[in-house]
Amino acid sequence: MIAKREVWEYPSGAKVWAGKYRNSHNLLHWHYDCECIYVERGSLEVYCERKLHLLTAGEALFTDSGQMHYQRALEEGTLLEVIVFESGLLPFLKELRLAEPKLKGSYPFPAAYARLMGILRERAPFFGEEARCVLSELFIDIFRREELLRRVREGGTEAAFKHLLEALESDGELGFEDAVRLMNMSEAYFSRYFKAMTGSTFTQYVNVLRTERAVELLKQRELSMTEIAERAGFPTIRSFNRTFKELTGVSPSQLPKDYSFSARAPLASGERFLPTLSGCTLVESCT
Predict the structure, then answer these.
(1) pLDDT tens per residue across span 58-91
(2) How high is the pLDDT of residue 57?
(3) pTM to 2 decimals?
(4) pLDDT at 5
């Protein structure tokens, strides 16, 4: 799927996770946790807060709770240090937030990451509180030096939009007019809003979700092509065949048994989704 809420699992006794990724590449998603990424090597493109951010070695970006984002490495061998923590862990984050996701200053992120990794792996008594202290020290430094904004409670529009994305994931027949009605917007405004929030048009987004469903149904080899097209949400068998081949590179009848479909999050410069397999590898984890 191309947008969903991610649920993090933390080590028992702590609300912090740390890990390192090579060639990071993920799909549009959000979570109610906070996430900070630091580029140790290479370069990275991150879509967050309706903007595309470029990070190179030594730069960091903070994704706040509830912000939709995706990222992909721009160079082979790009290495990221990642820290994720429960949004309520640092009290001052309840009132203040960063004006921009990408950090302008230089901070001792690698040192903090190394300390957290050691704490979370050793799991000595009170290690969760110790990890929180390391995070507090790092983010107090960040919040003292970066531009801040007073936090505003999430409005009804953004909350409704997240519910819409979940509805699109579960209901293959939900169409453009249904989405417009759910969002209580004009068609023109909804189209602009959807593109700004996801980086894709509504049709592109829905076609990827439908293709993903069709791939899973084809693997079961229990239904006819017409039945698969209908269950996946395609209006006609013709549109099913055309869209499926466009996004996978093969016709439905030629799909390899071991095929894995993963829709790449759209780039701001592109007008199409391109399916690809992620080469992202978790090379280090605190768990």
Answers:
(1) 999 999 988 888 888 999 999 999 999 998 999 9
(2) 98
(3) 0.68
(4) 63
pLDDT in tens, 173-210: 889 999 999 999 999 999 988 887 777 789 988 998 89
Closest CA to 81 of 50, 108, 100: 108
Instruction: Render the chain in DSSP notation, one character per residue.
Output: --SEE----PPTT-SEEEEEEES-EEEEEE-SEEEEEEEEESEEEEEETTEEEEEETT-EEEEPTT--EEEEESSTT-EEEEEEEETTSSGGGGTEEESSSB--S---HHHHHHHHHHHHHH--TTHHHHHHHHHHHHHHHHHHHS-EEE--PPPHHHHHHHHHHHHHHH-TT--HHHHHHHHT--HHHHHHHHHHHHSS-HHHHHHHHHHHHHHHHHHHT-S-HHHHHHHHT-SSHHHHHHHHHHHHSS-GGG--TT----BPPPPTT-SS--B-----EEEEE--
Q: Which residue has the tokens 């302008």?
A: 104
What pLDDT digit, counting tens, does each position of 82-134 carry? 999 998 999 999 899 999 999 999 999 999 999 999 999 999 999 999 999 99
CATH homologous superfamily of 156-254 equals: Homeodomain-like (1.10.10.60)
Tell me whether residue 155 is exposed, middle or buried, using C-beta atoms within 10 angstroms of its C-beta: 0 to 12, 13 to 18, 19 or more.
exposed
Pick the CATH number of 4-152 from 3.20.20.80, 3.40.190.10, 1.10.10.10, 2.60.120.10: 2.60.120.10
